[in-house]
Amino acid sequence: DESNQRSEQSLVAMKGDVAGDNQKFICVFQIGLDDDEEFCLVKRILGKAGNNMRRIAEECNAKVRLRGIGSGFLEGSDGREANMPLQLNVSCTDYESYLGAVERVASLLKELYKHYRRYARSKGMEPPDVKVQLEEVRRDDLNLDLLAQKAQRSASQ
């Protein structure tokens, strides 16, 4: 189980040394599966009455948002789901909360993937090789801001 602990810690970079107030720590988990009426992927991620998301948000003082196709999360002026694969965004204002939220989401997804593989096998389908994937998109403690970089790139084109 030691390798399991190591992989948990390597999901995100070590704490950076850039200090400041109102820091942001944001990462995006790619779910890697589509919602399925029978398996109810989105409902399982959110939890009964949204309890999974609420618990992580409250315990870790985090914003946790499921976005993309099938998420049910409507955004923008036209109030539609973002046209992107299902993803879970985690946002915190301090490193310790961020680490806790990332660990809880990773644990939730690992459990979900285990159930999905079992479900796929029960349906005679080849179980997909899904694993927890996340990208850190903003870390003020590391001067990392991929969102701003993307915005600058698209503005200069």
UniProtKB/TrEMBL annotation:
Pfam families: KH-I_KHDC4-BBP. InterPro entries: KH_1_KHDC4/BBP-like, KH_dom_type_1_sf, KHDC4_KH-I_second, RIK/BLOM7. Residues 36-110 form the KHDC4/BBP-like KH-domain type I domain. GO terms for cellular component: nucleus. It comes from the Eukaryota. One of its GO terms (molecular function) is RNA binding. This is KHDC4/BBP-like KH-domain type I domain-containing protein. It comes from Strombidinopsis acuminata.
